Fold this sequence. Notes:
Blueprint: E1 3-9, H1 14-32, E2 40-46, E3 52-53, E4 56-57, H2 58-63
Parallel strand pairs: 1-2
Antiparallel strand pairs: 3-4
Amino acid sequence: MPIIRVEMLSGRTREQKRELVKELTVAFNRTCGARPEDVTIVIADVEKENWATAGKLVADKQAG
């Protein structure tokens, strides 16, 4: 049972997430051969103050 974990900044709509999990499932099936019903996807929304790149919080980068 493959598990795909997606961590991304919060703010996407339910419809965007619906489309994302559909596309990820299709891509995994196409490239790895797993049945769609065996693919599990976990989405973790992360707030901007909890995400950093290059030593800076994303929330700080967008504020200034």
